[in-house]
Amino acid sequence: MSTIKVENLSKSYGDVQALRDVSFEIPDGEFVVILGESGAGKSTLLRCLNGLTQPTSGSISIDAEEITGPRDDVAMIFQQHYIIEQMSAYGNALTGSLNRTSFGRSLLQWNDREDKLAALEALDTVGLLDEAGQQASQMSGGQQQRVGIARALVQLPNLLLADEPVASLDPASAESVMGYIRDAADERNLTTLASLHQVNLAREFGERFLGMKDGRLVFDGYREDLTIDVIDQIYGDIQTESIRSGQEVDA
Ligand SMILES: Nc1ncnc2c1ncn2[C@@H]1O[C@H](COP(=O)(O)OP(=O)(O)OP(=O)(O)O)[C@@H](O)[C@H]1O
């Protein structure tokens, strides 16, 4: 539920220029997929958006307010689940309210009624309401990732970021988890940016696409504009050979 404006964003790590003069705007509620080869700058862009990395130059604003560090209303889903294995799915989801509750209270589940309702609603969104009491360690990788999504939703974010959220899952689980992320974003009209390696998944779930190469934004457009030639431009020919023959693609 936020408008994002990225202006002339650059980031260098010593001699490595991870982002080069990247600019774009995302209107409220759009679902954006970031594509690019390994090292193209996708994670750096997401880390700048969640305030964990300071850009070398340029700026990012959310609803006209410049990002200067981590914010409670920006949630991130990672490739690794980072969930607490000994805790139930419900307990893990509740930790998303940490920004509103002390960690101790959250661990003891002394949360407000609203937080508990938010946790149950989020578990419902990711199809895990019936498994709310199940210990996370007993769950599959895909279920654990859905718990991670629920936790991000309990944070009540205005901006949802996902860095390779399905990279460690098998193709069927990856598709299912992407579906849950998309549904969660649609239900809550959440502005979302997700980086993905799998071009086919990106085309299935993305609304708008940002293509990155060597730290530059080389494509910004919607599904109908994401042609094979554009994918060639982002990845080179190897990727698209498999797309043409209809195979699953992993960048
Ligand atoms: N903390 C860091 N220190 C030094 N160099 C870094 C750091 N983080 C990223 N880089 C470099 O910046 C460039 C962009 O990296 P980034 O992780 O943003 O790319 P990416 O597109 O997310 O790649 P991947 O898909 O492999 O995660 C790469 O050359 C990478 O080696």
Automatic annotation (TrEMBL):
Gene Ontology cellular component annotations, sorted alphabetically: membrane
GO MF terms, alphabetically ordered: ABC-type phosphonate transporter activity; ATP binding; ATP hydrolysis activity
Keywords on record: ATP-binding, Cell membrane, Membrane, Nucleotide-binding, Translocase, Transport
Location of the ABC transporter domain: 4-239
InterPro entries per the UniProt record, alphabetical: AAA+_ATPase, ABC_transporter-like_ATP-bd, ABC_transporter-like_CS, ABC_transpr_PhnC, MetN_ABC_transporter-like, P-loop_NTPase, Sigma_54_int_dom_ATP-bd_1
Annotated PANTHER family: AMINO ACID IMPORT ATP-BINDING PROTEIN, PHOSPHONATES IMPORT ATP-BINDING PROTEIN PHNC
Protein name per Swiss-Prot or TrEMBL: Phosphonate ABC transporter ATP-binding protein
Natural source organism: Halorussus limi
